[in-house]
Amino acid sequence: MEIGIVVFPGSNCDADTYHAIREVLGRAAQYVWHEERTLRGLDAVILPGGFSYGDYLRAGAIAATSPAVRALRPYVAQGGIVLGICNGFQVLLEAGLLPGAMQPNAGGRFRCEFVHLRTERSDTPFTCGLAPGQVLRIPIAHAEGRYYADPGTRVLLAAHRQIVFRYCDAQGAVTPDANPNGAMDAIAGLASPSGAVLGLMPHPERASEDVLGSADGRLIFESLARWIYSGRRLPAQSVEAH
Amino acid sequence: MAVRTVRIIVTLKPGVLDAPGQAIQKGLDALGHRGVEKVRAGRYFELEVRDADDLEQRVREMCEGFLANTLIEEYRYEIV
Q: The pTM is what?
């Protein structure tokens, strides 16, 4: 099993993610430079958090043009699975691998704090070890996490069960107060219809050990390892966002 | 072939929350500039591009595929 972590100029959660997989989970991980043109041989690809290219133009927009990200489309079409965390989520949107866009947080602030997430879907490679409705406590750290999709796309997101995590309170109730950035439908995590591609605004790698204040994020990496080890495969698929 | 200057302005679509614009409006107000009813923030690009018959079409492709995120932004340009 080998998980690739793509490194862009300005990535700053790559080492945290590597640590969570290698040291906490005890699984194999490797860094993948953004100029790599093929992702063959990797069991999963993670786009880590950070400020790729200084968030120039729009968060994730320049990274979306890199060879490694352009290689994601054929990689996923052949059954590969991809997790984008925070800036990685923004990259997936800009690359058209997930639908919609991120806007600046409602309130205009960079939000860096623990939030609660409700698991809406537990049949993806990243959530297969979670129970439906399970509440995770994981931190966010972003200025642009207010998810937006046009009304037509919003209908499709529901039809295809693409919402994987919603911001909620400690009891699992989705309320306006529990939504830290004004995201549409309190979306914190969004997947492609098959679940092969997941974008996640919160940072599971920052909550994978008790010493960090929560180990709930580890459940996402453990799900991924379990999925890969079980040999489960998603069918080859088209990867048009919509 | 001649080089043309292309000026492109990208702003948020009307109705999309313009948080930077609102923050700038507050800043102007704090400095005592009264009467500013609205501020829309955006981005300006100036490109030097070799002229071609399909230049305008190419500029549109640059805007729609990269310089603007047309889900939430709109663009306008002039070729001089």
A: 0.93
